[in-house]
Amino acid sequence: MDNIAGKRGRLTWALNIAVFLLVLLWTIPTLGLLVSSFRDADQLQASGWWTSLSPSVQSSAARTGPPATQTSGLDGYVLEGNVFGDASGEVVTFGTTPMMPDAFPAGETAPRNGGGTLVVNADGSYRMTSPTPFEAPDLVTGETAGEPLPDRGLRVFITSTEAPDFTTGNYGTVLNADGMAQSFLNTLTVAIPATIIPILVAAYAAYALAWMSFPGRALLVSAVVGLLVVPLQMSLIPLLQLHNAIGLGRGYIGVWLAHTGFGLPLAIYLLRNYMVGLPKEVIESARVDGATEFEIFRKIILPLSLPALAAFGIFQFLWTWNDLLVAKVFLGNSDTQMVMTGRIVELLGSRGNNWELLTAAAFVSMIVPLIVFFSMQKYFVRGLLAGSVKGG
Amino acid sequence: MTHQILLAVVTVIIGVGGCIAYFWLSNLVLDKTFPPRGSNAAQNLRRSGRIRPWLFMAPAIFFLGVYLVYPVFASIWLALSQGGEFSGLANFIWLFQDPKFHESLINNILWLLFVPTMATLVGLVAAQLTDSIKWGSIAKAFIFMPMAISFVGAAVIWKFIYEYRAEGLAQIGLLNAMTTSLGFEPTAWLTLPVVNTFFLMIIMVWMQAGFAMVLLSAALRGIPEETVEAAILDGASPWKVFWRIQVPQIYGTIAVVWTTITIMVLKIFDIVFAITNGQWGTQVLANMMYDWSFRAGDFNRGATVAIVIMVAVMPIMVWNIRNARRERD
Q1: What is the pTM of this model?
Q2: Which residue in chain A is spatially nearest to B140 when comparing CA positions?
């Protein structure tokens, strides 16, 4: 018995570790996005997000104070100051040319080209000396090339470590400058009516298909099942032409109608499956009592079907919120109409390397679906099961 | 901005109010026309009973007809015409000779083979593993989470993982950071033909495995326990019990999961559109359709590609309808 128990114990351990690894594998991508969206832009470019809690090492070029601040002493002309300015950090190595930012460890005295020395200490303080007076560097390019820049100092090349720097500034930038706030509102404007209207339309149809008898009912149910899989791509062109022909053009109304049409098969299918399972006695006794079909629907069916309505509502909301294609085709691409998914695709093109902005923008678009998902997971799962398992 | 909020609120009120008003008024009119009392009560009741279902279904039938059925026929016409005139199979002949179409077709087949298989397999294993531990439901929630994220959001998440920097620079993409730490050279994964399609497919597996897991876990729990217990008593290993006893009993659900993901994969658009836009040999049918329709502005050729997608979905449609019928009977 001990043997079996020991074996079982090991198996349980293996199971727990396997699931833990699976969960890790599935969450790390999203975690990377979340962490990166809060990182300072320079640090994000300099090191992977998984190192974001340890000090980051980066090579950079600092400038000394302008030549006007030089003093003269025993060892010639001297420029002094701190390479970090007001910021803080720790210098690891430094050099006098861009090729070799790690030529000298911090604190050592390095000879300069053309005489003089340079010392950069770990705390960032530097001392640069020269046998001749320092002159402002010349502007190298542009119309005024060759003219001196009196405000500019000389360059010092350093490798430094900086404390982790987290900021919410990326969110401010994408929300305001990059228009994600406007797009957030646009997405909301698309998603809410596009969720509510199909529920209402589908509920009545589902009731008729579940509890009223009329010729052609079986055929209609089959048609709904068939329409479940009609690819969206079929509908885009003819409907855009139709919308243009009847003067609807591109706009919110067109998107709402399109989402309603595309969401209906699943809505009717889910709700009918649910309503068929409601107790027959309740409905029939109401009919005997003289209630009209309209009253039965409103007072009995609708309240009893709330779980199914919620399940479909979550589906449709996530789908319309996350949709890119329908919005791209039926809504304009103007600033007042572009939804978040469309905006992010545009940012991927124009800001492909600004990962601090891309990750923040993506997270802005994900926050609402994630809240909906985690708070209503029970209904969501129930809807999935009702929609798929019964179908098989 | 307030204008827009107002517009949305007004639409919801008009839309919802309009719907309710329609159903309420049409039923009222029907009851007034054929009052269910008086001398003709029985006859009136029969008449209104014949009409009422259609009142309930009219808006739905309108939407299904205009937004799903009509476009099928309109697309067929578009595919068979050019510039408003019937052109026979000319568009299809062009399509079948287009190298980009061959590329899309091969890629779509790769997607169809890889994604449903991997998502179902991972989902199956995840379902079995999470069902046998204490914190299984929490684990499930995390594996399921990507379902709530948009394809575009997932595209950003994974493009960041595949990010490439030239050798010598710090690799901020997780994948290149791992390969370079093992001593390999950094690689621009998304521009490597064939391999890049697999990297796009992984995103879809990541998103759909949770869906498969939830359905399969429910199915596994529905298996009668006696069958499993009997097998264990006979000395079968957990591995054997799972693959020989449990899995065969949920073939029906596996088929549903498989076909649902297959349909989604056939229409795969957003991921390819956002990450590579069909460059470097990653083109797929849905993105090709978008390119021709809305970039090149050639609706006829776009519709031709759409028809190909529709034809590919057809067998699943027929299978679904037959299953639904069998269940009803």
Answers
A1: 0.83
A2: A23
